Amino acid sequence: MHTLIVVAHHDASSLTHSLARQVAQGITDADPSHSHEILDLAASGFDPRFSVADGAVHRHKSPPPADVLAEQARIERADALVLVYPVYWWSMPALLKGWIDRVFCNGWAFDFSPDATLVKKLGHLQVHLLGVAGADAGTYERHGYGTAMKTQIDHGIFDYCGAPVISSTRVFESETQPAAASLQAAHQLGRRLFRDADKPSVVKRDTAVEQG
């Protein structure tokens, strides 16, 4: 089994990158036959800006450009997709959102046209989300930020494409609390990633990690 781990942070020494590496280590520790690739979006040079050319792809007027095709090929090689990202303004960073905007395009992630039924095309891809939050869990609960993110990301992006979100985890108080608990949770995420892969159904898990 193969996992694509996408990390969206400008600093390779950040907690976000450390969590991605722990997920990868957990995958290897669980079963050395499993493989993984870490895609560092900040270092990759991928252009996240949705252009006129991308609009033409959406309208089926041109094929995806080479950089988008390369990213789609990464995903096609994977059985699971793990997104590791800091929470910026209660959502994912623009870098990661732009990667999704361009790569998860009409005709590849889904088929949409005004006169036809939507076809979801990524049902084979298991998705795991790991968000790194500066605020505490109480703030997310009081203001409904967690629900809003679930609606926007889990449902609005991945359900639209048919890709099941198997787990969604947030690390709270990431800038003020020790990192040990969140690093351990990331390692455990990697270890259990394919634990239920051969079962006929997978139960979605929503979890939170409070550090300290």
Structural write-up:
The chain is α/β, with parallel strands linked by helices. The protein has one domain: Rossmann fold, CATH 3.40.50.360. The chain is built from eight helices and eight strands. The strands form two sheets. Strands 2-1-3-6-7-8 form a six-stranded parallel sheet, sandwiched between helices. About 3% of the residues have low confidence.
Protein topology:
Elements: E1 2-7, H1 15-30, E2 35-40, H2 41-44, H3 52-58, H4 66-76, E3 80-86, H5 94-103, E4 110-111, E5 119-120, E6 126-132, H6 137-143, H7 145-161, E7 165-172, H8 180-192, E8 205-210
Parallel strand pairs: 1-2, 1-3, 3-6, 6-7, 7-8
Antiparallel strand pairs: 4-5
Helix pairs in contact: 1-8
Number of domains: 1
Question: How many whole angstroms does the radius of gyration measure?
Answer: 17 Å
**CATH C-level:** Alpha Beta
* Largest sheet composition: 6 strands, parallel
Rounded to the nearest angstrom, the distance between the terminal CA atoms is 33 Å
Number of strands: 8
Helix content: 40-55%
Tally of helical runs: 8
For the biggest β-sheet, the strand order reads 2-1-3-6-7-8
Strand content bin: 15-25%
Spell the H/E element sequence: EHEHHHEHEEEHHEHE
Query: Which residues form runs of ≥5 with pLDDT under 50?
Result: 198-204
The structure class reads: alpha/beta
CATH superfamily: Flavodoxin domain
CATH architecture: 3-Layer(aba) Sandwich
